[in-house]
Design brief:
- The longest helix has 16 residues, at about 5-20.
- About 40% of the residues lie in helices and about 20% in strands.
- A five-stranded mixed sheet has the order 1-2-7-6-3, with helices on both faces.
- Helix 4 crosses helix 6.
- With about 220 residues, it is of the alpha/beta class.
- The chain has nine helices and seven strands; from the N terminus they run ααββααβααβαβαβαβ.
């Protein structure tokens, strides 16, 4: 993790304490997250098998309070919310059957998102979950915003967009790898991450996310 990211997160957390806040889940005043909305973030891990053979465990459904809180973290920079979200992520990681020698690999934020937010979402959530992530993946090219794209368009958008940091990967041979991201939507991003890691000869055993969009048909998978 870079010194700039540490400073950005610390400043954002400190600012949240000084400025008037509203509950990220329901807009109740003077509370970053009210008791009721904290209750809505109690993890209920679910499992989804993506078409590419990647098993994903997610702690929450991406709707209601959970969706609002995740958006506040990502769009408003309220990094203090990463703590309750990290607790939920921890449940998903444990549900994935992580072993002591497993490596948690965060999906990297795009360069544009890093410039906009000043921090990377997945690595932050891993730390707040009480784990240590290893940044084996990096952007290989720019991608468009995934929002508003259908399943096929998302897959095309992220195809070939990630690369592996080979110097670090050499030390991870034969160790089980669990990919970590914030939200599972269609599965495209996680499958691209798995492709890059497997192409580099690494062993991907699954993935974990804070939340997953509810499936409204058998065709919906991020």
């Amino acid at each position: 993790m870079s010194i700039l990211s540490v400073v950005s997160e610390s400043l954002a957390d400190a600012l949240a304490l000084l400025l008037p806040v509203e509950c990220a889940g329901c807009d109740t005043e003077d509370q970053a997250l009210c008791a009721g909305c904290r209750g809505a973030l109690v993890p209920r891990p679910t499992r989804r098998l993506l078409d590419g053979g990647v098993e994903v465990h997610s702690a929450l459904a991406f709707e209601g309070v959970a969706a609002r809180v995740i958006r506040c973290l990502k769009e408003d920079g309220r990094t203090g919310l990463a703590t309750p979200l990290g607790s939920a992520l921890r449940a998903a990681v444990l549900a994935a059957g992580v072993t002591e020698d497993a490596v948690l690999v965060p999906v990297p934020s795009s360069r544009a998102a890093m410039r906009r937010r000043g921090f990377a979402v997945a690595p932050l959530l891993i730390r707040r979950a009480g784990f240590r992530g290893v940044t084996l993946l990096a952007p290989a090219r720019a991608t468009a915003d995934q929002r508003g794209l259908d399943r096929d368009a998302r897959a095309r958008n992220v195809a070939g967009s990630l690369r592996v940091r080979m110097g670090r990967a050499a030390r991870m041979r034969d160790r089980p790898i669990v990919i970590v991201d914030d939200v599972l939507t269609t599965g495209a991003t996680l499958l691209e991450a798995a492709r890059a890691l497997r192409t580099a000869g690494l062993v991907v055993t699954g993935a974990a996310t804070v939340a997953a969009t509810p499936r409204r048909s058998s065709a919906t998978h991020r």
